[in-house]
Amino acid sequence: MATDEERRREEERIGLRQEVSDLRARLAAAESHFHGVVEASTDGIVVVNREGVVVFANAAAAAMLGDTPTQLIGKQASFPMASTATRRADHEVFRAELRVLSTDWEGQPAVLALLRDVTEQNLADAEMAYRATHDPVTGLPNRYLFDDRLRQALARDRREPKRTLAILFCDIDGLKSINDRHGHAVGDAVLVEAARRIASVIRPSDTAAHLGGDEFVLLCEDVDDAGAAAVAARVTDAFDDPMEVEGVELVVGISVGAAVTTDPDAAPADLLTEADHAMYRIKQRRRRETFR
Question: Which residue among the candidates 90, 214, 224, 241 is catalytic per the annotation?
Fold first, then answer.
């Protein structure tokens, strides 16, 4: 018959086994929860040992890198430990943002890499930047981008004195009448075709911008008065042929005025005003010639 001391010791052993069992259950639950959180993460999580070998990868990391977790484990880490463009197993390039932390893995020093695919975000940011600097109708630079390029050109002129710079102000003749008669869809199509024709007769280094409405402006560096006159003539000649837009044939003209400067301290607004006034004189002269 067991003594009181033996019964007490047996109860302690049973209690200890129960505590160990409960602890193991809690650890298993915690580990399951941890793995659940890790696998549910949309960020890639990769653990790399000090030999550079992948010892753990979650599903998100595997998807980003074009493998399965099983295929990744045991491989040398092939992605850079920095925020940069990287390449999937199928050679598709994507933009990755990485955070790297020191950790332990099974008692050994390791590196924990948090990998985030920011390709879509970068594309969205680039799209927002493009929309902020380009005209939505023609796709040409808008006033903001044109002003920036003009200021940069003037800054270059300060470093290289005596360089010439030409601003050409262009106005589509009769756009308001086209909008009133045929609708804004036709008017917008005219602007798109006008942008195409203007861009086709200038140099790749020149900037053609749509300021809005019927107004376009050109920035041409290293172009003197004769060169500006030649650019204006090419732009004008580009509108000789009728436009076929939205099933409507239209004869559309353009008036072009130029301002040329060698003054690197010229005010951008003054240059635009000078070119605008020159364009207006050309437009008035063309109207008088039309009614003779």
Answer: 214
